[in-house]
Specification:
heterodimer; A: about 475 residues; alpha+beta; Uridine Diphospho-n-acetylenolpyruvylglucosamine Reductase, domain 2; Uridine Diphospho-n-acetylenolpyruvylglucosamine Reductase, domain 3; Alpha-Beta Plaits; 7-stranded antiparallel β-sheet; 20 strands; B: about 300 residues; 14 strands; globular
Chain lengths: ~475, ~300
């Protein structure tokens, strides 16, 4: 049903007049998220301040059959918070209370509009931190992290959002409230909590989140190793992981991104580096000391010609400067860029990076590689100039890179999510039966399809009737290959 | 009935049961006895894909040849399928988590014979719904788990155990938890004992043992205490949950238990009732109906 003035009046009555936005000028702020190529105008944006108000809004949506989209800070990169045209956007921006800090339980309970970094800030004075650290952590919200199952550079050792959320209050798409989990782990029954996290707003709206907080490590050591080729750096990543070392983070940059970062922010990385690795180790001091010595040995054996070590926060910030500056620096060397997000098995990194190089040459567009090497999560940056009509070519190149990741046994997305961006690519990784099974879960939570429709699963309206070419799912392929 | 030996056979069995109006209890009427192969183990990736009938011990024997392990040590020697379906874990849960934290992907056979994959075989992946987690704890009511991809860990170079006997077990646990030590396991063998496992480089284990002793006292011990802990957990009839910070008051209500304090779980000798809120039960039922509308899975 379409949005009417009566409905607007009802929402104003429920939330207060200034918590309902319907003016087109003000709505425009909400017409996209971090994936700015997709835009849609909602009929209204509502800003509930409590779980009860979220329930009230969702009940109205359910009654009227109006689609709704939950929104945190809008930093997502896959269009997960893209409004449904003429639907309602439920912004959690006002729900920013830290409800309880329970250091003895190593838990914190927050409303879902609290930013990721504010969770760590709330407990850092007591020697704790919140482990998942997406690069947008200063602004992105915990609710958004739950929706996307956010990772970050340090999830290699510490795990993703799903490994750190122990409880959720969820407003289901019919307005009912469920409490999944709590401070204790392993609730009885199927892991609905685990299924909800990463469901991209399609199963309901999380309003309160109980998180695990972690004791700060005794020691942190950061090493930067410079290599003459990207193959050498890739080999070092495999060798470190195979040696049984589990760093907090292993990040990799190629020549193009190093050059861009140097031009823009002058991190002063070693001259002549075709690739640099940043390896961060944390934990108890003797273990870190031994592991750091092993990382040093391995990197040198793989051809590293210079290794720098940061022992304090200031030195560490300098080593990370280039890595953190890589994305903004790209804006200086190219008018436009598209950030791809794909995953490959760690042992396939060198092979896939080669393939990306070939694809880049074939399409005549530059591709920068700066990524979470330790877990095989690539972020190729496809550089293009939209004013020269290169956008379409860039999109093709980005899709072929993703195909190469799947070909290597990887995944469509490691942390940015499917959203609208990759909904039509889902058939490349999952069969119709797989997708139909996903649909069963979605319908169990949301029989009327009102929660963030058009995201995650492909729809004929979004993708046309013909699905893309299906590649056998990695698990299916393993099973089949084994039989012959 | 039958141990099946392939995904297709499992699908066929379930389809036939559905057509005949027969109910199937996974584990009793249908098990993965013939599906015990390791389908892939890419050592450099620290991942593997197995058929769900393989037992934890045989998987770990094979992985040990490559210096790796599945960091899951539930009592007994269950199959991987059972580990997921019943969400089984042991002392290593402290650091490495439950099956839901180690599963990367699954192949499921639904009650109507539909074969569906979810997740993948890479350690990081947010594409699609995480049905591998959903089926953890589902006790065979949502689907037959046929294949599982898992995250692995290196076998540590050394390990050491500290056992602390104390009248103030909760105080000892709190001191350890507030320290920067990184134990792999931390159990309370109630009443009166705390066991701590350190793993890693030899020197690091020694130094952590020393630090822990300064903090809470106790003596170094062999691995026997972990066998005891797992055995007592295996013999337990119920589970009690508590906020980890309320360990002291939780223990006060129990005569005997094996407790994972960081998880807030106590395994107790008496039977307990699942403490799932009504709204969650209703949601579980809605999910079950969608996965098995005919009610084939008992």
């Amino acid at each position: 049903m379409t949005f009417s003035p009566t409905l607007a009046a009802e929402l104003r009555h429920l939330l207060g007049a200034d918590q309902v936005i319907t003016e087109p000028d003000e709505l425009r702020v909400y017409d996209c998220d971090g994936l700015t190529g997709w835009r849609a105008m909602p009929a209204a944006v509502v800003l509930p301040g409590t779980t009860e108000e979220v329930q009230a809004v969702v009940r109205v949506c359910a009654r009227e059959g109006t689609p709704f989209v939950a929104r945190g800070a809008g930093t997502g990169l896959s269009g997960g918070a893209l409004p449904v045209a003429d639907g309602i956007v439920v912004s959690l921006a006002r729900m920013r209370a830290i409800l309880e800090i329970d250091l003895d339980s190593q838990r914190i309970v927050v409303e879902s509009g609290v930013t990721n970094l504010d969770v760590t800030r709330a407990v850092s004075g007591d020697g704790f931190f919140y482990a998942p650290d997406p690069s947008s952590q200063q602004v992105c919200t915990i609710g958004g992290n739950v929706a996307e199952n956010s990772g970050g550079a340090h999830c290699l050792k510490n795990g993703f959002t799903v490994n750190h959320v122990t409880g959720l209050k969820v407003v289901l798409p019919d307005g009912e409230l469920v409490e999944l989990g709590g401070k204790a782990l392993d609730p009885d029954g199927p892991d609905l909590l685990g299924a909800f996290i990463g469901s991209e707003g399609t199963l309901g709206i999380a309003t309160e989140v109980t998180l695990r907080i972690v004791r700060k490590p005794e020691v942190v050591t950061t090493q930067l190793a410079a290599f003459r080729s990207i193959d050498d750096a890739g080999a070092a990543v495999s060798a470190i992981v195979s040696a049984g070392i589990l760093p907090a983070a292993i990040e990799m940059m190629d020549r193009l991104t190093i050059d861009a970062a140097e031009q823009a922010f002058h991190p002063g990385y070693p001259d002549g580096a075709e690739s640099v690795l940043l390896v961060e180790l944390d934990g108890v001091d003797v273990q870190v000391e031994e592991d750091a010595a092993a990382v040093d040995r391995i990197c040198r054996a793989c051809g590293a010609f210079e290794i720098r070590v940061a022992l304090d926060d200031a030195e560490r910030a300098l080593l990370w400067l280039g890595r953190k500056a890589a994305f903004p620096a790209m804006g200086r060397i190219s008018p436009d860029y598209y950030v791809q997000d794909g995953v490959v098995p760690r042992t396939k990194l060198p092979e896939v990076l080669h393939r990306i190089g070939e694809l880049s040459a074939e399409h005549g567009l530059r591709v920068g590689n700066v990524f979470h090497a330790g877990d095989g999560n690539l972020h190729p940056l496809v550089l293009y100039d939209a004013s020269k009509g290169e956008a379409e070519r860039a999109k093709e190149l980005a899709e072929e890179i993703l195909a190469a990741c799947l070909e290597a046994g990887g995944a469509l997305t490691g942390e940015h999510g499917i959203g609208v961006d990759k909904a039509c690519s889902m058939p490349k990784m999952f069969s119709e039966r797989d997708l139909a099974t996903f649909e069963r879960l979605r319908r169990a939570f949301d029989p009327d399809g009102l929660a963030n429709p058009g995201k995650v699963l492909p729809t004929p309206r979004l993708c046309g009737e013909v699905p893309g070419p299906y590649r056998m799912h990695p698990l299916e392929r393993i099973g089949v290959a084994e039989r012959f | 009935m039958p141990s099946v030996s392939s995904v297709e056979e499992a699908a066929e069995t379930l389809r036939a049961a559905g057509a005949a109006g027969r109910r199937v209890r996974i584990g009793d009427d249908l098990d993965a006895g013939g599906m015990q192969r390791i389908l892939e183990h890419e050592a450099g990736d620290l991942t593997c894909t197995v058929e769900s009938g393989i037992r934890v011990s045989s998987l770990n024997r094979a992985l040990a040849e490559h210096g790796q392990r599945l960091s899951l040590d539930p009592p007994g020697d269950p199959t991987i399928g059972a580990c997921l379906a019943a969400s089984l874990s042991g002392p290593l849960r402290h650091r490495f988590g439950a099956p839901r934290d180690l599963v990367l992907g699954v192949t499921l056979v639904l009650a109507d014979g539909t074969v569906a994959n979810a997740g993948g075989k890479v350690v990081k992946n947010v594409a699609g719904y995480d049905l591998g987690k959903l089926v953890c704890g589902s006790r065979g009511r949502l689907a037959f788990i046929a294949r599982v991809s898992l995250r692995l860990h290196p076998i540590p170079a050394a390990s050491g155990t500290l056992v602390v006997e104390s009248d103030d077990v909760a105080g000892a646990v709190a001191a350890l938890q507030r320290s920067q030590l990184a134990p792999s396991a931390l159990d309370v063998l109630h009443p009166g004992r705390v066991a701590v496992l350190f793993e890693g480089a030899k020197r690091a284990v020694a130094s952590q043992l020393a630090t822990a002793r300064e903090l809470v006292g106790g003596d170094e011990s062999g691995a026997g205490v972990w066998a005891e802990s797992r055995e007592r957990q295996g013999a337990a009839q119920g589970r009690v949950r508590f906020a980890p910070g309320e360990l002291d008051s939780a223990l006060a209500t129990l005569d005997e238990a094996v407790v994972r304090p960081a998880a807030g779980i106590a395994y107790v000798p008496r039977a307990t009732v699942d403490d799932v809120p009504a709204a969650v039960l209703a949601l579980q039922e809605r999910v079950r109906e969608r996965f098995d509308p005919q009610g084939v899975l008992a």
